Amino acid sequence: MQLKSKDLLGLEYMSREEIELILETAKLFEEVSGRDIKKVPTLRGKTIINLFYEASTRTRTSFELAGKRLSGDMINIQVSSSSVTKGETLLDTGKTLEAMNADIVIIRHSSSGAPSLLSKHSGFSVINAGDGMHEHPTQALLDMFTISKKKKRIEGLKVVIVGDIFHSRVARSNIWGMKKLGAEITIVAPPTFLPREVEKMGVQVSYNLDESLKKADVIYLLRIQQERQKGGFLPSIREYSRLFGLNQERLSLAKKDVLVMHPGPINRGVEISPEVADGPLSLINEQVSSGVSVRMAVLYLLGTRK
Amino acid sequence: MGSPLQRGKMNLLLKNGRVIDPSQKIDAKLDVLIEKGKIVELGNNLDNKAKSIIDLTNKIICPGFIDMHVHLREPGYEYKETIKTGTYAAARGGFTSIACMPNTKPVADNQAVIRFIANRAKEEGIVNVFPIGAISKDLKGEELTEMGELLSNGARALSDDGKCIQNADLMRRAFEYAKLFDLIIISHCEDFNLSKNGMINEGFISTKLGLIGIPKAAEEVIVARDIQLAEFTKSRLHIAHISSSYSVELVRQAKKRGVNVTAEVTPHHLVLDESLVDGFDTNTKVNPPLRGEEDRIALLEGLNDGTIDCIASDHAPHARTDKEVEFDQAAFGMVGLETSVSVILTKLVHHKKLALSEMVGKFTLNPAGILKLDKGTLQKGKDADITVLDLRKESVIDANSFLSKGKNTPFSGWKVTGLPVMTIVGGKIVMEDGKVANK
């Protein structure tokens, strides 16, 4: 079996079987990262471009490590967002990279849909490393990989996603992906953070974190951006934290083996208290480790696709 | 049959066609005699009175179609469209008259620009062009334009179009002052706080794609506001490109209480919905955005019950560079002059969603009435502006073949049945079988 598309644009467009194939393949690559010599020759001679229009440390580094551990030739292009308007258009950049025979282009962009645009006009594989508020598929894949390692399954798990769903590409990708693998998802947020008709994505909606926590197998917290206060989404970070922040007291309402996750970077004391973030139920660091294996799997499956 | 230009100079007899003219409640097989640019007679057996006879068997002869909402982009944005290319596109699409919005550069907020547009249209254009003047200077929503001077130089209506006036007090004054000249105010209804950063309709599709939505309420609150202001000032209001179900209801109620309000709808809002945006095609990005299916149905109801008076394209040509970019950076708008008639015939008339005679009224008599043009009719003595339709002619819409400089349409590739096959302006054939006569 192989992936149907040359691109990874989002989990909405993937089948359950494709997602499972990526997760299975990631298991094989996890072993490589544990070796003394963390390298296999699988993608030798392949040119992989990290094209980042937004600042990112962990995703960019994770892709770079993944590409290097597969022996691909990795190039980083960091485009400052200020030069987008005066500089070369995305399509012209795409043409340039195509002329250089790039095999895979990993793009992060502040505009939803930018990876689709690049993909429509180029022959190389496009991997979406986060586009606007649309999708961040490899984040969701690594989250599912992390969960299934701990719980041995996704099917039937009750997942609670808490926070700014409206602005979150991570939430969207996780909802599509986890739904396809059979999880039950509840999103918990103040109504200003709930995008319109979000229930059509197949999720339950709640305003009450304490109630939702009780049945949860996984609590997934989203990062709250400070500027949301100005946009009228929140009266204050303080009130958000009081109503929706995860602290020890709240966590004690949940099951003993609940998993606490966060895509990072975390705001300590806002959506998560430091004790919880560093506590025994937190998987935040494991998520980062899983990221490399999952991205190796994605690069491998797209890079060797016939 | 000779070249269109040669025959245009002669007197013409349009023979064997079915004449549909809602202004005279005519739907009958009649011949139309044209002399010196005017309609001379509708009747039978007029053969001996004309030098040039055109057989229009199985064709429909209508008063010339009017598109009252067009962007011609000149002066200022000639890379998107010019008055010349815009009027060629109009002729090809079956339109004999178009009204153009003032958001040019410089803005059509003074006599110089209005005169420039009118003169350029006479020099290079091949259909009638009626400029619409700005309501506020430089479309800034701060001070009123010299409306009297705009009118005396050829402006037929007033609008700030896409720059909807946010200040309700200024809008009130605009309604009041426009009464001095009996000018109609055309309102693009949009509350900019509510629509801030929005790109597509706010709903499941915007949620899924992670694109900021434009809520229907952004339109509805201004429709409500402007109806109240028009009622309060006893002035005339025309709602541009109405798009939401509740806006239709607001207009319906206002008409019942006797408010002087009219409304237009675009073909794209009548036949497309927001699901088309899925896939990030920037040709589907338009303002107001494509809405939900329930809105589309409400628009169709409003069109049929008379709440919505006319169909206008909001022809908004853009260059490839304006559209082949990230979705949030792409310009709003789609071209419409060369697709409106075919799309309406194909999707509405042939599917019995809109009667043919109703459609003709929405393209002729009604917009003429709103703009107070002495057009939209085949009455004796009126300008011989005529649109001829072939309801059965099949074709495939091909954006690359457009005469408009703008190729930005979501309709490219559509198979359509029904086409305008002849456009006559002031007795002169400017389009025949898709071929436009050069000026």
Please sum up the structure shown.
The complex is a heterodimer of chains A (306) and B (439). Chain A has 12 helices and 9 strands. Chain A has 306 residues and is α/β, with parallel strands linked by helices.
Choose one word for the global shape of chain A: globular
Helix content of chain B: 25-40%
Strand order, sheet with most strands of chain B: 8-9-10-11-12-15-16-17
> How large a portion of the residues of chain A is in β-strands, by DSSP E?
5-15%
The unreliable regions of chain A are none
Q: Could you state the CATH homologous superfamily of the largest domain in chain A?
A: Aspartate/ornithine carbamoyltransferase
Find the count of extended strands of chain B (DSSP E, 2+ residues): 21
Category from helices, strands and their pairing of chain B: alpha/beta
CATH class membership of the largest domain in chain B: Alpha Beta
Count, helices of chain B = 14
On the 0 to 100 scale, the average pLDDT of chain B is 96
| Spatial separation of the terminal alpha carbons of chain B | 19 Å
Distance between the termini of chain A: 11 Å
- The quaternary structure here is heterodimer
Number of helices of chain A: 12
- Total strand segments of chain A: 9
Major sheet: arrangement of strands of chain A? 7-6-5-8-9
The CATH architecture classification of the largest domain in chain A is 3-Layer(aba) Sandwich
Look at the structure and name the CATH superfamily of the largest domain in chain B. Metal-dependent hydrolases
